C-alpha cells in the first residue's frame, strides 16, 4: 500500500483549509460591520448633556419597562437621559418610538407616561407606534414625521447602530448616551448586538430593507 497521501487525507485537508478560510472571512465581516457602526458614531455621540447641540428633536428608542418580572434598567436609563436633555433645554420635542404590535404591549405609551412623571409636558411628546426595529424608528422619523436632524437617545452601542442607519438615509444626527447596564442581562444584550450589526449592514448594503409600516405623514408640533 502506498505510504503517500491518500485521496481521503487530501480531501480532509482541503476541507479544513476551506472551513478555516470561511471562518476568517466570517470573522472579518462581523468585525467590519461592527467598525462601520462605531465609525458612524465617532465624534457624534455624547456622554455629557452640555455637549449636545441644542434645538433638535430627540428620538428615544423603545424597550419595555419590565423584563422577566423585574425593572428593565435599559428603560429607566433611557428615560433618565431623555429627561436630562429636556431639562437642559437641548430638545424641543421627544419622539418616543417603539413596539405596539400586541394589545397589551405598548412601549411608546409607557415611555410617554414615564416622561410625563418626570416633568416633560404631554404636548411635547409624540409617539411612534410602529418602531418595531431600530431601522423602522430611524427611517420613519424622517419619512413619516419629517425629522431631518435628530438626537438619538439610547445606550451607546445602540446609538452607534442608529447612527449608521441615519447616515445611510441622509439624516443629520447626533446622540446622547444613556447609562449602560452592567449586569448579566447587559452582557447578553452586547452579544446580541453583534448579530444586530451584521443585520444592519446587510439591510442597508444588500437587502435594501424598508420599515414594515409607513403610511401617512404626521406633522410634528412646532
UniProtKB/TrEMBL annotation:
InterPro entries: Cell_Envelope_Assoc, DUF218. Residues 57-173 form the DUF218 domain. Transmembrane segments: none annotated. It comes from the Bacteria. Pfam families: DUF218. This is YdcF family protein. It comes from Luteolibacter flavescens. The lineage of its organism: Bacteria, Pseudomonadati, Verrucomicrobiota, Verrucomicrobiia, Verrucomicrobiales.
Amino acid at each position: 500500500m502506498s505510504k503517500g497521501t491518500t485521496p481521503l487525507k487530501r480531501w480532509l485537508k482541503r476541507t479544513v483549509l476551506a472551513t478555516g478560510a470561511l471562518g476568517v472571512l466570517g470573522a472579518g465581516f462581523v468585525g467590519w460591520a461592527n467598525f462601520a457602526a462605531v465609525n458612524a458614531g465617532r465624534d457624534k455621540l455624547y456622554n455629557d448633556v452640555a455637549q449636545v447641540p441644542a434645538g433638535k428633536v430627540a428620538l428615544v428608542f423603545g424597550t419595555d419597562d419590565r423584563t422577566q418580572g423585574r425593572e428593565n434598567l435599559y428603560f429607566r436609563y433611557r428615560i433618565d437621559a431623555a429627561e436630562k436633555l429636556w431639562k437642559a433645554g437641548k430638545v424641543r420635542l421627544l419622539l418616543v418610538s417603539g413596539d405596539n404590535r400586541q394589545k397589551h404591549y405598548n412601549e411608546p405609551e409607557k415611555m410617554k407616561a414615564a416622561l410625563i412623571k418626570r416633568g416633560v409636558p404631554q404636548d411635547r411628546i409624540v409617539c411612534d407606534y410602529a418602531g418595531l426595529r431600530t431601522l423602522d424608528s430611524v427611517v420613519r422619523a424622517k419619512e413619516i414625521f419629517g425629522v431631518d436632524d435628530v438626537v438619538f437617545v439610547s445606550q451607546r452601542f445602540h446609538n452607534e447602530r442608529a447612527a449608521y442607519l441615519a447616515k445611510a438615509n441622509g439624516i443629520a444626527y447626533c446622540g446622547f448616551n444613556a447609562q449602560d447596564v452592567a449586569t448579566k442581562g447587559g452582557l447578553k444584550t452586547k452579544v446580541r448586538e453583534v448579530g444586530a450589526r451584521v443585520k444592519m449592514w446587510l439591510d442597508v448594503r444588500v437587502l435594501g430593507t424598508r420599515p414594515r409600516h409607513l403610511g401617512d405623514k404626521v406633522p410634528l408640533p412646532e
